[in-house]
């Protein structure tokens, strides 16, 4: 009797332990990926436009708009597709784009929502932070979305993303792109662990040149996680290897980085490590091996200016204002590589040749207002909203030769390969270069094709057009938006010509030569040609830090010379896109509008390896324990 009681008690304890292990262990930093109830499908549902309603004290909201450059956190509530999270932190976000909007007649700021700022245990279906991007400088509203889609297709860990329609205190703010933050949650979801070191380089050291073995010398390396254990990082060893000829496979995920640079090059995304700004990427060190994470693609598809990748708006001294940031000792303007096209078999390359001899000087503007007011002294909250050309829109320069025929052999702009040692170390190796070229060929024949990109833009146009029309704060007109969908000056046309150029460069039919000559005329975003009256080009030094820009910086604007293209075949009918184009937009919150119904994206439920191992170990332990109890019980008899 006593023995049976012991046996049954032991079995009950074992079952209880098994239940605890199954319930608790998956929450100890190990998260499932792409399950039916994860934020990746419930929040970032690509088949519909997510509804985001923000509630914030009106005085706080007005203060945020009037002092947007301060990026001060405000407390509020947020409801996403009917799910309300209270006490979240909200602020404006951005760098150069934020300052540009501050100094414009718009108050359409990108926003960052922090669900766990006031409560560490709070999240939205596991999501801790959400970025609401305002699609600055992108009249198509699609560059960043499509870029992330291609990164995903090439197997790269990519932030979740989808379109969201935002209101604040019941007032419509418009159509934004929601993007998952790269944080501990993202790392656990994509790497099975968030115990490593996450870096967001921007400033000294972001070119990944070797300075010393003292990590403190890399002041712009931007460590985001695990700060207390930084001495355990292999960062300086990795930098030594890529700069001085070490075994780079010991320190970096070579294949992943080759895929990343292939996509970045194909998309001519130069507001990145490959341009003179050397930023907009993450590095994640997991067990001493570094991976690269894509970030910020509103300037892809040649939007940053492939002729040098500059931002319009004045010379460098004016941009820096009164900051104390200086060029490193002995460093002058960086040499850049100017593309020159050769046609070994005759013929002209695609696109128009950019004009020569643009000036890089600018007369200072008089009586500039501060970043919080218009020239009439009215606060941002009272500015006129509406169409507003930020530069970088879909002008005729989308088809600029400098973007279409951007070099795949020396894929940098405003700098040299030697100044970008990570890329240089990869492309200097014949085996790695061959693999990089194979990924470019895959992109040019499979994903960055006219048909594939056209299918995306058509679907997005049907999904977004009614929302874009109703957007009260949008930067561009509906005609400019539709211009990017189809036609001679669209994203599919860019893909067609760019992929053709890539294949010709791979075959040797097209040779893009580069020369180490100074780039005195840095192109404006997506506008390095045909800018009459815009002689105010500038040169960015290699160590330029955008965070040092003065608040009163106001970039030059491109002229409105857009020629809207025809809508895609089949139109954007209401039965597909939803909404009444002649009246107020119907919102997708159960009260009518596009894509009613749950619209739940169908995704295969998968679980990461760590969770599988945990469950397997727990089950094995239970089986072994039950066998032991069974044998003990038989002996007792």
Percentage of residues in strands = 5-15%
Mean pLDDT score? 76
Tally of DSSP β-strands: 14
* Estimated structural class: alpha+beta
Q: What is the distance, rounded to the nearest whole angstrom, between the alpha carbons of the first and last residues? A: 11 Å
Number of DSSP helical runs: 17
Task: Please render the helix and strand layout as text.
Blueprint: H1 2-24, H2 39-42, E1 50-55, H3 58-66, E2 74-80, E3 83-93, H4 96-102, E4 110-114, E5 129-133, H5 143-153, E6 161-168, E7 171-180, H6 184-191, E8 197-199, H7 235-244, H8 254-266, E9 281-286, E10 289-294, H9 316-320, E11 335-337, E12 340-342, H10 401-404, H11 421-427, H12 430-447, H13 450-470, H14 478-483, H15 491-507, E13 511-513, E14 516-518, H16 574-577, H17 609-636
Parallel strand pairs: 1-6
Antiparallel strand pairs: 1-2, 2-3, 3-4, 4-5, 5-7, 6-7, 8-9, 9-10, 11-14, 12-13
Helix pairs in contact: 1-17, 8-12, 12-15, 13-15
How would you describe the overall organization of this protein?
The chain has helices at residues 2-24, 39-42, 58-66, 96-102, 143-153, 184-191, 235-244, 254-266, 316-320, 401-404, 421-427, 430-447, 450-470, 478-483, 491-507, 574-577, 609-636, and strands at 50-55, 74-80, 83-93, 110-114, 129-133, 161-168, 171-180, 197-199, 281-286, 289-294, 335-337, 340-342, 511-513, 516-518. The protein has 17 helices and 14 strands. The relative contact order is 0.16. The protein is 31% helix and 12% strand. It has a domain at 2-29 and 608-636. Residues 26-35, 308-396, 516-544 and 546-610 have low confidence and may be disordered. A hairpin with a 2-residue loop joins strand 6 (161-168) and strand 7. The protein has 637 residues and is an alpha+beta fold. It has a seven-stranded mixed β-barrel. A three-stranded antiparallel beta sheet has the order 8-9-10. It has a two-stranded antiparallel sheet with strand order 11-14.
